[in-house]
Amino acid sequence: MNAPVTLQRDCQAIRIPGGDITLLPAGMPVVLTQALGGSYTVEAPLLGGIFRLSGRDADALGLSPETGPSAPERPSERPLEEDDVWERLRTCYDPEIPVNIVDLGLVYDLKILPHSSGGRRVEVKMTLTAPGCGMGPAIAADARQKIAALPGVAEAEVTVVWDPPWSLDMMSVEAKRRLGVG
Fold first, then answer.
1. Domain-by-domain residue ranges, the chain?
2. Integer Cα distance of 37 and 70 in angstroms
3. DSSP 130-160
4. Is 170 exposed, middle or buried (0-12, 13-18, 19+ CB in 10 A)?
5. What is the distance between the alpha carbons of residues 146 and 140, in angstroms, rounded to a whole number?
6. What would be the CATH architecture of the domain defined by 82-179?
7. Domain 3-61 has CATH 3.40.50.2300
8. Are 50 and 30 in contact (CB under 8 A)?
């Protein structure tokens, strides 16, 4: 990655790690640092920060929207299953690490419960690689948004927890290989 790009149109972005919404104007030079899970991470030197753009803003970067396995779909007539949520969580990435949050071992618990509206409530407990990591709000918001978009989900809640503390042992074999650890 690390490809310099000039934004072709205005687009909203989430400032990393704070999570506040920022308008990036057309003509602004950015550096594309990551394109995973249907979203894009860019560095904007003129604003002094890193930002996450939604997949729907791919055209602002001169790209086609990501398709295929990054945003798995399921038939809406089928009841929501736990595997549907796990697959959606596999499209969530830390903007600085090219491994999804499931393979990083950050997701500790997932529950699907009835919701008073007749849909389902999905509750996820996740952690971060370090208690001082400022990415928590942005990663949790991304996971919550992607789960809430699943057919049949009336409410999604993603909570960041610290117990048990995360360790490298929680990563999948593929994640360890990809990052060159243990």
1. 3-61, 82-179
2. 5
3. STT-TTHHHHHHHHHHHHHTSTTEEEEEEEE
4. middle
5. 10
6. 2-Layer Sandwich (3.30)
7. no
8. no
Maximum separation of any 2 CA atoms in the chain, in Å: 48
Q: Phi-psi region for residue 37, left (φ > 0), alpha (ψ -120 to 50) or beta?
A: left
The 3-state DSSP class for residue 92 equals coil
CB 34 within 8 A of CB 42: no
Tokens of 88: 């959606």
* Dist. CA 27–CA 104, nearest whole Å: 36
H or E element in which residue 174 lies: helix 173-179
72: exposed, middle or buried (C-beta count within 10 Å: 0-12, 13-18, 19+)? middle
Determine contact, residues 74/151, Cβ cutoff 8 Å.
Answer: yes
Q: Write down the pTM of the prediction.
A: 0.74
User: What are the per-10-residue average pLDDT scores of the chain (182 residues)?
Assistant: 90 83 94 88 92 90 66 65 96 87 97 93 95 84 92 96 94 92 79
> What pLDDT sits at residue 115?
94
Residue 164 is predicted with a pLDDT of 93
pLDDT at residue 119, rounded to an integer: 92
